[in-house]
């Protein structure tokens, strides 16, 4: 059990794998457990989950800086971006970063669009040749940050900007409201169950999207049987029916994360990451994710009982709310 930021985490051992799966605080676990118990006792009914869905949607909207009416529900980043990719003209030129997470690139490539990879640092200046720029705010493989200010200043007025904030929301304060798409899965730094994902869409993009995957939830309770087509007038018309239990957890996790001092959360994670970098003679960075290419690093960490991930040939570690200086010391000892 660990105490941090006014709550507790049932973390046993050293867990540095938040970039893969976030560890929820105890109140999130309790909320989901209570909902599962009610389901098992036949005490659940579909309408009772509407409040949790609305709460999580509104909280996500505030993280991004948009209205809840601009937020689409989904279950995974790739599915939500598939909606975008399928609504674009054939042959759309999509610019992305090298080694970008494939849930960002595959939906566009699978739809037959031309996807062009460039080094992350070169991406802003190359946007002039693209119809769409699709990139992660923080790279999954190594924690590198895209230069949002440069991207915003360089991108043309007709180019759509798609940002995957899965590896940034929850620890990196940033203005994302200007992008045409901000999508994120909730099960990493937002400390929610897998199955809750959201996508904020700009008005100009929403006009172009085709609600080809919308079901009854996109129309609401009055639209569950029969034609004609009748969908919500805002971005909810693109909703997928939510994974209810996942949104129960998200409705607890996201508002709690919102209530924290965003600067303190950022400084905590990045501070620990930089303490590790300093101990390994690496330059400081502005990321809570550290990719270590030291020989045998992944095996040494595993042997020491430290949970991390192997990504792109590097041991990937992420520092979030429950982590401490002692965790950094343990990594340094394991790699000594």
Automatic annotation (TrEMBL):
InterPro entries: Aminotrans_V_dom, PyrdxlP-dep_Trfase, PyrdxlP-dep_Trfase_major, PyrdxlP-dep_Trfase_small. Keywords: Aminotransferase, Transferase. It comes from the Bacteria. Pfam families: Aminotran_5. GO terms for molecular function: transaminase activity. Residues 47-282 form the Aminotransferase class V domain. This is Aminotransferase class V-fold PLP-dependent enzyme. It comes from Actinomycetospora chibensis.
């Amino acid at each position: 059990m660990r105490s941090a930021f006014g709550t507790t985490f049932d973390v046993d051992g050293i867990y540095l794998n938040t970039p893969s799966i976030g560890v929820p605080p105890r109140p999130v676990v309790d909320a989901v457990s209570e909902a599962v118990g009610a389901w098992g006792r036949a005490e659940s009914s579909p309408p009772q989950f509407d409040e949790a869905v609305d709460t999580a949607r509104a909280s996500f909207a505030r993280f991004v800086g948009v209205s809840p009416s601009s937020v689409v529900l989904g279950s995974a980043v790739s599915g939500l971006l598939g909606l975008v990719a399928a609504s674009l003209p054939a042959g759309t030129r999509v610019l992305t970063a090298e080694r970008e997470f494939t849930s960002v690139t595959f939906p566009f490539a699978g739809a037959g669009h031309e996807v062009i990879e460039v080094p992350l640092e070169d991406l802003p200046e190359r946007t002039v040749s693209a119809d769409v720029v699709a990139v992660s705010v923080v790279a999954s493989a190594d924690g590198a940050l895209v230069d949002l200010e440069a991207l915003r200043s360089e991108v043309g007025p007709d180019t759509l900007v798609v940002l995957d904030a899965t590896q940034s929301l929850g620890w990196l304060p940033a203005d994302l409201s200007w992008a045409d798409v901000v999508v994120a899965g909730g099960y990493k730094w937002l400390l929610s169950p897998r199955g809750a994902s959201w996508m904020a869409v700009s008005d100009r993009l929403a006009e172009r999207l085709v609600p080809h995957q919308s079901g009854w939830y996109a129309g609401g309770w009055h639209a569950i049987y029969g034609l004609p087509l009748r969908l919500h007038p805002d971005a909810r018309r693109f909703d997928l029916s939510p994974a209810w239990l996942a949104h129960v957890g998200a409705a607890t996790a996201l508002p709690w994360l919102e209530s924290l001092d965003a600067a303190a959360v950022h400084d905590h994670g990045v501070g620990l990451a930089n303490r590790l970098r300093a101990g390994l003679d690496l330059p400081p960075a502005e990321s809570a994710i550290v990719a270590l290419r030291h020989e045998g690093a992944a095996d040494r960490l595993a042997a020491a009982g430290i949970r991390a991930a192997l990504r792109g040939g590097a041991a990937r570690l992420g520092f979030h709310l429950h982590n401490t200086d002692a965790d950094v010391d343990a990594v340094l000892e394991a790699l000594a």
